[in-house]
Amino acid sequence: MIEKALRWRCRRGMRELDQLLLGYLELRYPSADSVQQNAFIELLEAQDPVIFGYLVKGVVPESQPTADVVRAILECAGSLQVRT
Q1: Looking at residue 73, what is its pLDDT?
Q2: Rounded-to-integer distance, Cα 61 and Cα 70, Å
Q3: Alpha-carbon distance 19 to 53, whole Å?
Q4: Helix 34-44 × helix 48-55 angle, to 10°
């Protein structure tokens, strides 16, 4: 079960970020390996404009684990859009 504190940290106050982060948290985080889970937790510590840049504007993170989790979040979002 995903802890409530982690779910709360995904709530950023921007609908776009909330949907992307919560979608990944629910669909991919539980089965992700520990490296990707840690990268996701570190991503949540970033400021909203940084996360927005990664997830919406296409800015590529310098850290490879962060880049990998950003790619996974965007892939997850793509699979959600296909289902609807």
Answers
A1: 96
A2: 8
A3: 15
A4: 130
Q: Are 39 and 69 in contact (CB under 8 A)?
A: yes
Positions in the chain short of pLDDT 50: 82-84
The per-residue b/e assignment along 55-82, b for 16 or more CB within 10 angstroms, e otherwise, is beeeeebeeeebebbbebbbebbeeeee
Distance, in Å, from the CA atom of 32 to the CA atom of 50, rounded to the nearest integer, reads 23
Rounded CA-CA distance 66/60 in Å is 9
* Cβ atoms of 73 and 24 closer than 8 Å: yes
Name the CA radius of gyration of the chain, rounded.
12
Give the integer Cα–Cα distance in Å for 15 and 25: 15
Cβ 22 vs Cβ 10: under 8 Å: yes
- DSSP secondary structure code for residue 29 in this structure: G
Structure confidence at residue 80 (pLDDT): 58
